[in-house]
């Protein structure tokens, strides 16, 4: 999928460059060099610029700066911690059990990962497959239906598995129902790179208007975030980053990048 997206982007860039080169050549017959390029840059900026989301929603999600006036007057609004994957070290990550663990300890801000199954269900899962979490040989949930994976014990390899028996994968809609009922703020990190996950996120927000005030969408792929916010600019969005995010699927601080997105044939 990443290969096809890369080729699409590459073809689009080539087309745009070709068009701009022709257009600049025409402009240079009537405008001094530099001014034509500047005008093209300004035009490109305004053609691709997206409307900013509601400022109130941004502030409601991320809260005020701790040292600001609002942060001093309303200290309860300041973000003190964000539970990564729903406190994944304490409870099986990206599950209802993990989110309940956070809410019971007054942590009202969680991060969760979402991707799609074969039948288009929005599943909370960081990895592409289930090997690390379950010990099964399912390498890509995109190749299986929700019914195939929904009853697998997702806490089978967790260090605290003795405290969490038969924990199952969670769909985004089920997580949202619980987290919104607890007034929890969220970062929804999009892991998939297909139309199903884009349309799924858009439909999720449109069907839950309250979500605009409580959730931000992030992704490592700027094209995915642009497509989401282009269709619904009121969604608060941000770009995620880690080293080697474009060349490798995984990265570990101790061991470096692994699982290259594209295998080079050079050498």
Please specify the SSE layout and strand pairing.
Elements: H1 2-27, H2 35-48, H3 55-62, H4 69-73, E1 83-84, H5 96-104, E2 109-116, E3 122-124, H6 131-134, H7 146-149, H8 172-181, E4 185-190, H9 195-207, H10 211-214, E5 215-219, H11 222-231, E6 236-239, E7 248-252, E8 256-260
Parallel strand pairs: 1-2, 2-4, 4-5, 5-6
Antiparallel strand pairs: 2-3, 7-8
Helix pairs in contact: 5-8, 9-11
Features:
single chain; 267 residues; alpha/beta; six-stranded mixed sheet; two-stranded antiparallel ribbon
What does this structure look like?
With 267 residues, the chain is an alpha/beta fold. The protein contains 11 helices and 8 strands. It has helices spanning 2-27, 35-48, 55-62, 69-73, 96-104, 131-134, 146-149, 172-181, 195-207, 211-214, 222-231; strands at residues 83-84, 109-116, 122-124, 185-190, 215-219, 236-239, 248-252, 256-260. The strands form 2 sheets. Strands 1, 2, 3, 4, 5 and 6 form a 6-stranded mixed β-sheet that branches. It is globular, with a radius of gyration of 22 Å.
Question: Helical amount among residues, as a percent range?
Answer: 40-55%
Assess the beta-strand content as a share of residues: 5-15%
Give the rounded overall mean pLDDT. 86
User: Based on helices, strands and strand pairing, what is the structural class?
Assistant: alpha/beta
End-to-end distance, in Å?
24 Å
Order of helices and strands: HHHHEHEEHHHEHHEHEEE
Rg, rounded, reads 22 Å
Number of helices, where a helix is a run of at least 4 consecutive DSSP H or I residues: 11
Low-confidence stretches are none
How many distinct beta strands?
8
Q: Describe the sheet with the most strands.
A: 6 strands, mixed
Net shape = globular
